[in-house]
Amino acid sequence: MPPVARMLTRSGTAGAPERSDASRNRELLLRTARRLVDELGVAALSMDVLAAEAGLGKGTVFRRFGSRAGLFTALLDEYERDFQAACLSGPAPLGPGADPVDRLIAFGHERLRFTAERGHLLREANARPTTVNPASGFSRLHLRVLLQALDAGGDAEVLAYQLHAALEVPLHFHLDGHLDGVAPLTAERFAAGWTDLVLRVARR
Amino acid sequence: MPPVARMLTRSGTAGAPERSDASRNRELLLRTARRLVDELGVAALSMDVLAAEAGLGKGTVFRRFGSRAGLFTALLDEYERDFQAACLSGPAPLGPGADPVDRLIAFGHERLRFTAERGHLLREANARPTTVNPASGFSRLHLRVLLQALDAGGDAEVLAYQLHAALEVPLHFHLDGHLDGVAPLTAERFAAGWTDLVLRVARR
């Protein structure tokens, strides 16, 4: 039986019980932060603005997240959780039920979109794209499970590392702030390149 | 005509003329530093030890390299230059003359070996594996030229980014200091995985 990919996020707070008012505050703050990011962009989101918009004290915001970077890490965790849920139990082809090749293609496209949309958050959270952060662990594990289901031979674990690295290319550009200058490559070319790579790897 | 890969290194000092005694000192210091690294390891190499071993003043060492990290960057440039020369004009299959698939395989294996041997230097130089450093530029360009020679179709530039990222996986582990703990993957598995990936990408 292939290993089942578990939800893995950066802050790892899922298992820690919180007092119910603290938990409510956290939810309210994250919901408010998501709305502010959607409406005004990441740059406009400060601890002051968040406290005011949520109707809570600034001290509460700092107690919850420690710093602005901590807030962005928590936000990223939220998005990551949604993404992982969609992969594990959402509709096909991202979720279960489709051909593994189609699922691999869908996974990459969704991940590339995630990176494109959340790259600014990653930058603010000072998150580095590394092979050892928990979110990367989920991606690699998910890729490995799909590669094994594909029955394409080879070393599925190493292939998962290789494919995962290929998906993180645009993330590096985001973090280095060179997306437009150095790489004249569009999101469309990366997405098409992912489909092509999966088909080659799957020998289809 | 495909673009010709040029020598690209981090410090970019190749074109800057130096006064001849300064140039001689630099050569002597780098030669001495390489010997010390080979004999004693990176950890033992300090600015003091280097000055004493080279028979020069400590001030000269600092003037040449600025800092210990600067010294390691210069050392890396030396190794990178050797590596690039071997790819561009060394014996086949790494150098010209062999089938593009064999050259791609040889390139990856040599690059993985380079990373394994120089990972500790990269760590000391605080160099991050990014898609935008000049050494990465050389690798991507070289990969693209070989992919185009291969005539395997697809978007050779995007494929080059993807393959390049796959080769940098062990570098991330080195920089995060997790090579042994988190990844139970050996250098041999990565090397075999590279051969497999190239054959799939080349549809052979």
UniProtKB/TrEMBL annotation, chains A, B:
InterPro entries: Homeodomain-like_sf, HTH-type_TetR-like_transc_reg, HTH_TetR. Residues 1-23 are annotated as: Disordered. PROSITE patterns: HTH_TETR_2 (PS50977). Keywords: DNA-binding. Pfam families: TetR_N (PF00440). Transmembrane segments: none annotated. The keyword Cell membrane does not apply. One of its GO terms (molecular function) is DNA-binding transcription factor activity. Gene3D superfamilies: Tetracycline Repressor, domain 2. The keyword Transmembrane helix does not apply. Residues 46-65 bind DNA. It comes from the Bacteria. Residues 23-83 form the HTH tetR-type domain. Signal peptide: none annotated. This is TetR family transcriptional regulator. It comes from Kineococcus rhizosphaerae.
